[in-house]
């Protein structure tokens, strides 16, 4: 019987890019009044805010796509620059 090897999990702390930080602060400030309501506010509104923040942490373009046309050869570089996670992954897996 074939089985998969044991899963190895590594947790890395990854900084957000400056664009991600900017969008994160924008989401918080845009939703400040809803967040101040705390548990008196709507649970669905709170959940939507959390989802937006999570999307921002994954990649800035999930919040606001690039507004200008990107050449195919520059697309990967732009996607890498938009996410701290992708930058770290790219650096960890790159071997010249």
Automatic annotation (TrEMBL):
Keywords: ATP-binding, DNA-binding, Helicase, Hydrolase, Nucleotide-binding, Nucleus. One of its GO terms (biological process) is nucleosome organization. GO terms for molecular function: ATP binding; ATP hydrolysis activity; ATP-dependent chromatin remodeler activity; chromatin binding; DNA binding; helicase activity; histone binding. Residues 1-61 form the SNF2 N-terminal domain. This is Chromodomain-helicase-dna-binding protein 1 isoform x1. It holds the Pfam family SNF2-rel_dom. It comes from the Eukaryota. Its EC number is 3.6.1.15, 3.6.1.3. One of its GO terms (cellular component) is nucleus. Transmembrane segments: none annotated.
